[in-house]
């Protein structure tokens, strides 16, 4: 499945991101983020919480996809102005309380699998302060249990039909063999009766001949 094959790649990219965060971002403990890892099914929703732990005044939050398909997902300014970028248009909700933001991503698809990172903009810094680990999201396919049950039902029906067909063939062959057996037995019985009658007539004639003489 796709989400399994993406797991080693995502882990490698996350490690590289932690070691080489980029020229316009720096990893720090200023931004707290949870959860570390989620594994939803297609169509499900997840929550990502970002919190800015700094006494400095912030300018806003970013939520970024950083590895598979790097792009911006959400920007929320300190004045609560927001921009939801096309990747999650009509699929994202958020609520903000002071320096904490709760983001909900809806109707997740396989291509949404990625490492999502919260980044804070501080007025006292020219860099983005990003969370060190981010949230790894690996979307898995919906299990087709209904189809599996139907498949087992079809296989069972095929087996039953095959057994009935085999039984019909065996019964037909048995009846043919019995007919052949009786057809072979009848001529033998007639032949034996004719032989017996012929011998009896011969004996009678011989006796009659002897008596006449």
TrEMBL record:
Spell out the GO cellular component terms annotated for this protein, sorted alphabetically and separated by semicolons: membrane
Q: What SUPFAM superfamilies would the database entry show? A: Immunoglobulin
Q: Which segments constitute the Immunoglobulin domain? A: 35-131
TM annotation in the entry: 152-176
Entries under Gene3D superfamilies matching the protein: Immunoglobulins
UniProt superkingdom: Eukaryota
Q: Which GO terms describe its molecular function?
A: signaling receptor activity
Q: Output the GO biological process annotations, alphabetical, semicolon-separated.
A: adaptive immune response
Check the UniProt entry and state the signal peptide residues, or none.
1-25
Keywords carried by this UniProt record:
Membrane, Signal, Transmembrane, Transmembrane helix
Protein name (Swiss-Prot/TrEMBL): CD7 molecule
Species in which this protein is naturally found: Aquila chrysaetos chrysaetos
Q: What's the source species' lineage?
A: Eukaryota, Metazoa, Chordata, Craniata, Vertebrata
Underlying gene: CD7
């Amino acid at each position: 499945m796709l989400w399994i094959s993406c797991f080693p790649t995502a882990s490698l990219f996350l490690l590289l991101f932690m070691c080489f965060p980029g020229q316009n971002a720096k990893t720090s403990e200023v931004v707290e983020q949870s959860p570390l890892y989620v594994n939803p099914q297609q169509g499900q929703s997840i929550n990502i919480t970002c919190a800015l732990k700094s006494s400095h005044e912030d300018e806003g939050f970013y939520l970024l996809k950083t590895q598979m398909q790097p792009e911006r997902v959400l920007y929320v300014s300190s004045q609560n102005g927001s921009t939801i970028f096309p990747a999650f248009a009509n699929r994202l909700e958020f609520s903000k309380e002071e320096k904490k933001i709760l983001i909900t991503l809806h109707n997740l698809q396989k291509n949404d699998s990625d490492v999502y990172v919260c980044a804070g903009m501080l007025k006292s810094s020219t860099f983005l302060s990003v969370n060190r680990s981010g949230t790894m999201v690996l979307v898995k396919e919906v299990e087709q249990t209904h189809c599996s049950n139907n498949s087992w039902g079809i296989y069972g029906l095929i087996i039953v039909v095959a057994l009935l067909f085999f039984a019909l063939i065996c019964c037909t062959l048995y009846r043919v063999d019995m007919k052949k057996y009786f057809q072979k037995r009848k001529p033998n019985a007639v032949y034996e009766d004719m032989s017996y009658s012929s011998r009896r007539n011969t004996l009678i004639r011989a006796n009659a001949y002897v008596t006449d003489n």
